[in-house]
């Protein structure tokens, strides 16, 4: 297995950078409630999806590989008077004492598996923790050819979001892509701007993903022992994460696989 690092930025900065991404949360809450049983979220971070599920009455647990994220998640739960088991662990190799009606991996987190071996290990481990008839669900963007070509190492402003502490945070990404190994490396600069728009602080960050084509994911799920799977197209996060009848380049795919 490829060694896994802690998540690429602190929980507080993560919350600000992704403060504009919440359109997928109702979908995951809907799926978690429909499971009608115990739910496990892998790569739960500090509770972006887990906490709304818990508030909706879902019996949910979380697992993440970054201690700072787990501590932040526990603090957020305590502040809301909520309780849930959030544990430190690796999505490729974890052991839980119980089985689940649903294991879910939202928000492209599955793509942090950087080899096919790691991908299959995560899928197999997830399957082993499902009840008979239980579901694994994960979301992963389908690569957009034009966007892959834009990963040329040139810094580009991705977005600017409000900073709860005042001012704004400007996010600048420079991406590189290896189309043979299907790897994307992102070098990210998060610039903290004051109310006048002047730069006060900058954080230099980086992370890596391995994207997956649709036919490849079908083979990965079969290799992991899933006999049945299906994929549902959703629009991008900036377009509301809406269900779509036909998959297009750059859409998100929500995969569902059942344990027989």
What can be said about this structure in brief?
This protein is of the alpha/beta class and 260 residues long. It is 25% helix and 33% strand. The longest helix is centred in the N-terminal third of the chain and has 14 residues, at 67-80.
Structural class estimated from helices and strands: alpha/beta
Spatially, the strands of the biggest sheet line up as 3-2-1-4-5-12-10-11
Main beta sheet strand tally, sense and closure: 8 strands, mixed
Cα radius of gyration in angstroms: 18 Å
What is the residue-averaged pLDDT? 95
Helix share, percent: 25-40%
Count of helical segments? 7
- Provide the succession of SSEs: HHEHEHEEHEHEEEEHEEE
Oligomeric status: single chain
- Which segments are poorly predicted (pLDDT under 50) over 5 or more consecutive residues? none
Work out the count of structural domains.
Answer: 2
Number of strands: 12
CATH architecture of the largest domain: 3-Layer(aba) Sandwich
Give me the CATH fold name of the largest domain: Rossmann fold
CATH class of the largest domain: Alpha Beta
- Overall form: globular
CATH superfamily of the largest domain: Vaccinia Virus protein VP39
Strand content: 25-35%
